[in-house]
Design goal:
The complex is a heterodimer of chains A (659) and B (370). Chain A has 659 residues and is an alpha+beta fold. Among the domains of chain A are: 165 residues, no CATH class; 133 residues, no CATH class; 97 residues. Helices cover 64% and strands 11% of the residues of chain A. In chain A, helix 5 crosses helix 7. The longest helix of chain A is centred in the middle third of the chain and has 33 residues. The C terminus of chain A is likely disordered. By secondary structure, chain B is mainly alpha-helical. Helix content of chain B is 76%, strand content 0%. Chain B contains 18 helices and no strands. The model of chain B has no long low-confidence stretch (mean pLDDT 84). The chains are: A alpha+beta (659), B mainly alpha (370). Chains A and B meet through helix 1, helix 2, helix 6, helix 8 and helix 21 of A and helix 1, helix 2, helix 3, helix 4 and helix 5 of B.
Chain lengths: 659, 370
């Protein structure tokens, strides 16, 4: 009965979304509070229904109810509980449920926490969110329903791809989805602003917390996914410019640009039209990502829920949603009031440049991702666009953008003196050059690209620190005073600096890992050795172990090298009988911020293939983005972004956080 | 109360509850509309911006010149926002209430209608545990193998040392076509009783079924365990010899097979099959050659018996193109031209309406014998 109630609740959510659109739009047109309120109530109701339906589906997975087709196809009684839960969003249908949950959740959040918003803007935002819900829940109910029941109930389920049975992967999609869908709110705010014909500083401040939240979650989601690919796939890499990875990267790039342009709109009232355009684009890319993963146009390790027929439907939804957004933009944007003026050399100037670079980066990635698909569709000839393309096109654009990062925060608004700011940055340049020379001669001799990455990393990290020192007036005040000033800095400033330093940390990691990575492979019998970098691995033998739903061959390798005494690592090769698949469990031994990465391959005549990597500074690749996301969260906690505080004077009850 | 009734009561409660939520929000907003001031909410934002600027300046975090410029700008925004009045909002009258009620009812009716087309009203949940309980209380003898295996798995989970339970489970898994699971089950049991020949042999068989008769390293290890307990075990000897042949050590494999064949009575079907495999492994590929080489009249007689069995079967079930091809080819191999022609004629009669099939049979029959 719980399953059927879930099915009913999902349909109810669809109907409530229709009420949400009608009542909210009606409330705006007639200027009636009771209609607006009903729309908001419907939006909360749609969320509660979707949450109930999601819970019911989870219940079916947890109890292994194979009368539900989706459970029978994607679960198995022997699967550990965590993966039964994660299997909920492991399929096409289930992932749409997660998408809908986030979509209605954000709609309800606007309805409940958006008390300080102008009624018209709020009604239209809730209505637009409702329209998106209609499209996506409608698609789920009619074309991708997870509650379809089976008359012939199988005894056992069909399991889930064992590569996906991993704790990180259980939490990676929720972050990614909530991040993707978080941009839907920004999209709806943009639609509402276009209809209202009003994009000003206040609008930008209302939009910024949602952008920050979505961006932070998406950053975490992408990083978790990348870390998962790093240690689970056993290929030794962390980013493959795979179309599905790019699909999550495009909204991130647009969202990053939006985050920066919204600051200009908020502080100076300028770039309003562009900010709205980016808001539409960010969610447009999110929907494109959702389409690419599920449509069947891609074959990839991540394209987990492929179905061409439904892909066409999703393409239509994408066309309708993005098409109406951009159509509205083309019609209404020229009517938006222009904002404040500024000279090219100013903080706004660097932010505009940053936006140009980020937009170009997003366009490059988009072209590299879609061109092969379009070409293959038109000519039938498959071509592959790989890392060389992205490094040649995306690389220089991003590098130029990064050069600007420490400069922007040091420039005042409106008009600035470039020379003064550059003079302040000389320590960053000096550290950057030293890092580059260190890289060029010691870490990766002769590799100019790596040296440049080290320069950029040093420039970004030290540039961020200089910016903090500048604010705290380190040097011109007593250390105690400087510390007090630091402590008194708004959280937004801390968040920004942390995010910029995080970017530097990432660049350092990516540059060094890329240039100085060492790979070795050998077929090893017991007692044989393999050298990788400064470490020597000795095969001690392979045991067979029984896991909960797999059989594993576990190799024991002793490691000798700098700072290592009596260390044994145990890479595994797991065979899942239920799906007849094999996965490798990488032995990942962290040494400082570097990784010793060992993969056990196939056995042949009593010997095993062993591949080993020395990935120097690899952990920085993942630490950096987490710092960036943390920066986003810290900014989000800045009381200036909490409208409740501003509202306290007029409405004492409205002192809720978030908004 | 029946399940369907409980379902509809719960669904109705859910719908009515949500309707209540909708109206509560509507009434709340209407109530507030009456008390709200005419100020545009962006005023609050700009006022706050001004306060922030002052606060930052007071703490010395904003240079004075910058503060002045920013203050002037925020002030201008405040003034322009003050010119704009908040969009006036009324509470909403009776017509709205009626329209809302009608909309709510229509949405609920739509949900029920859509659910009736898409859902399975009242269909019970079927958690795995409940289903297993049901199977357990039914007559185990008539339970299909997959269900039986699921039941036994529960039993074994409670008594993991129970060899008999494990053996039953493994056999049920084999019967259910879950050979990989069976291999795991027998392997588990074998580790508990390493000298139990039956278990060791069953594990090896399960592994071979799983690999479709390919001797994988795991299967080879299992077969060696069988041999250690029962040095003459024909299955283990056969497959270990096969493993040797597959691994390119033909001589060793053929030796094993030869020894095995010699132990079998002349005329035993398995012996003939072995001879064939020996011939193939030694590089002689055809049955014809095997037969030609073996002068033993008993073997010729055996082949003839096999052929006549095939002929008998085809008489009963004539629609078997592959059978006809084999039969025609076999007569050829035996050199019995007369019977071959007769078989060919019968086949032509059977397939008079399907010349394409007949063509296929003739092609197959004249191709090199396997």
């Amino acid at each position: 009965m719980i399953v059927e109630l879930g099915a009913f609740a999902l349909i109810l959510a669809l109907m409530l979304s229709a009420v949400q659109v009608a009542a909210s739009a009606g409330g705006r047109i007639r200027g009636e509070a009771s209609l607006r309120g009903a729309g908001e109530g419907a939006s909360l109701g749609a969320f509660l229904c979707t949450a109930f339906a999601f819970g019911a589906l989870m219940y079916a997975f947890v109890t292994s109810d194979f009368s539900v087709a989706n459970v029978a196809e994607n679960s198995h009684t022997e699967k550990p509980m965590l993966y039964k839960v994660a299997a909920v969003w492991g399929s096409h249908e289930g992932s749409m449920m997660l998408w809908n949950l986030a979509l209605t959740g954000f709609g309800a959040a606007v309805a409940i926490f958006g008390r300080g918003l102008p009624h018209g803007l709020k009604s239209l935002t809730v209505a637009s969110q409702g329209a998106l819900q209609l499209l996506f829940i409608g698609y789920t109910v009619l074309a991708s329903n997870p509650f379809v029941r089976l008359t012939q109930v199988p005894v056992e389920g069909n399991s889930l791809n064992p590569v996906l049975q991993d704790p990180l992967l259980a939490i990676h999609p929720p972050f990614l989805y909530v991040g993707y869908v978080g941009f839907s709110v920004v999209f709806s705010f943009a639609i509402a602003a276009l209809i209202e014909g009003r994009v000003d500083a206040a609008w930008a401040r209302w939009v910024r917390p949602w952008t920050l939240a979505a961006w932070s979650l998406l950053t975490v989601g992408i990083t978790l996914g990348s870390f998962w690919a790093y240690y689970e796939l056993g290929w030794g890499g962390w980013w493959f410019w795979d179309p599905v990875e790019n699909a999550s990267f495009m909204p991130w790039l647009a969202g990053t640009a939006l985050l920066h342009s919204a600051i200009v709109t908020e502080k100076r009232g300028a770039l309003g039209g562009w900010t709205v355009f980016l808001a539409l684009t960010a969610f447009g890319f999110s929907m494109l990502g959702g389409f690419l993963v599920r449509s069947g146009v891609l074959t990839s390790v991540h394209a987990f829920a492929v179905d061409p027929k439904r892909g066409v439907l999703l393409l239509i939804i994408l066309g309708v949603a993005a098409g109406s957004g951009f159509g509205l933009f083309a019609w209404r944007a020229p009517k938006l009031a222009p904002g404040g003026v500024f000279s090219p050399v100013s903080r706004e100037g660097t932010l505009v440049l940053n936006n140009l670079f980020l937009a170009a980066c997003a366009a490059t990635v988009c072209l590299g991702t879609l061109y092969p698909l379009i070409r293959e569709a038109l000519t039938g000839e498959p071509i592959s666009v790989g890392p060389p393309y992205f490094l040649l096109t995306f690389g220089p654009l991003m590098a130029a953008c990064m050069l600007l990062v420490p400069l922007g925060p040091l420039l005042p608004w409106k008009r600035a003196d470039l020379l003064t700011a550059l003079k302040r940055l000389w320590p960053a340049a000096a550290v950057g050059v030293a890092a580059a020379l260190y890289g060029l001669f010691l870490i990766a001799p002769g590799k100019v690209g790596a040296a440049f990455a080290l320069f950029l990393g040093g420039w970004l990290v030290v540039g961020g620190l200089i910016e903090l020192a500048q604010r705290a007036k380190v040097g011109s005040l007593s250390p105690g005073m400087s510390l007090r000033r630091l402590a008194g800095l708004p959280r937004g400033a801390w968040g920004m600096t942390l995010a910029h330093i995080g970017l530097g940390v990432f660049v350092l990691g990516a540059g060094v890992e890329n240039a100085a990575k060492i790979e070795a492979a050998a077929i090893m019998q017991t007692g044989q050795q393999l050298k990788v970098g400064a470490y020597t691995l000795t095969m001690q033998g392979v045991d067979v172990l029984e896991g909960p739903n797999y059989t594993a061959e576990r190799a024991k390798l002793s490691v000798a090298g700098p700072g290592v005494r009596d260390m044994t690592i145990t890479p595994e090769r797991r065979t899942y009988p239920a799906s007849r698949q094999t996965t490798s469990q990488v032995a990942l031994e962290r040494r400082g911020v570097s990784d010793l990465y060992v993969v056990l391959g196939e056995a042949r005549n009593g010997a095993w293939t062993v591949r080993a990597f020395w990935n120097p500074w690899a952990r920085l690749i993942f630490l950096g983005p987490f710092l960036m996301a943390l920066g986003g969260v810290i900014s989000l906690s800045d009381r200036r972004l909490r409208l409740g505080v501003a509202m306290r004077r007029t409405a004492p009850m409205a002192a809720e956080p978030a908004e | 109360m029946s399940g369907t009734l409980i379902f509809w009561v719960a669904a109705a409660a859910l719908t009515v509850g949500l309707g209540g939520l909708l109206f509560a929000f509507s009434a709340l907003a209407a109530g507030k509309a009456l008390s709200a001031g005419p100020e545009d909410p962006s005023m609050a934002v700009y006022r706050r911006q001004l306060e922030e600027l002052d606060e930052l300046a007071n703490r010395g975090l904003l240079p004075e010149a910058e503060q002045r410029a920013a203050r002037a700008e925020a002030g201008r925004r405040l003034i322009s926002a003050a010119d704009r009045r908040a969009t006036p909002e009324t509470a909403g009258g009776k017509v709205t209430k009626v329209a809302l009620l009608a909309g709510g009812v229509a949405a609920a009716a739509g949900a029920v209608a859509l659910y009736l087309t898409l859902g399975s009203p009242g269909a019970a949940d079927q958690p795995f545990k409940t289903r297993v309980k049901g199977w357990m209380s039914s007559d185990l003898e008539f339970l299909p193998p997959q269900e039986l295996a699921a039941v036994l798995r529960q039993v074994v989970a409670r008594r993991p040392q129970d060899i008999q339970g494990l053996t039953y489970l493994g056999k049920a898994e084999i019967a259910a076509g879950e050979s990989a699971n069976a291999a795991r089950t027998f392997g588990h049991a074998r580790r508990l009783e390493p000298n139990n020949l039956e278990l060791v042999a069953l594990e090896a068989q399960a592994l071979l079924t799983e690999s479709e008769d390919k001797v994988t390293p795991e299967a080879e290890a299992a077969l060696k365990r069988v041999l250690a307990l029962s040095p003459q075990d024909p299955m283990a000897r056969y497959y270990l010899a096969k493993a040797a042949v597959d691994a390119g050590r033909a001589e060793e494999g053929v030796k094993g097979w030869r020894a095995l064949a010699d132990e079998l009575p002349v005329g035993d079907e398995r012996r003939l099959q072995l001879e064939q495999q020996i011939a193939r492994a030694s590089g002689k590929t055809s049955l014809a050659e095997t037969v030609a080489k073996s002068d033993a009249p008993a073997q010729q007689a055996f082949i003839k018996a096999m052929v006549s069995r095939l002929a008998g079967r085809l008489k009963e079930k004539p629609d078997d193109p592959e059978g006809w091809a084999r039969l025609i080819r076999a007569y050829g191999v035996l050199g019995d031209k007369e019977e071959q022609q007769r078989a060919l004629a019968t086949a032509r009669e059977v397939y008079a309406q399907r010349p394409a099939v007949m063509l296929e049979i003739e092609k197959e029959a004249t191709s090199a014998p396997q």
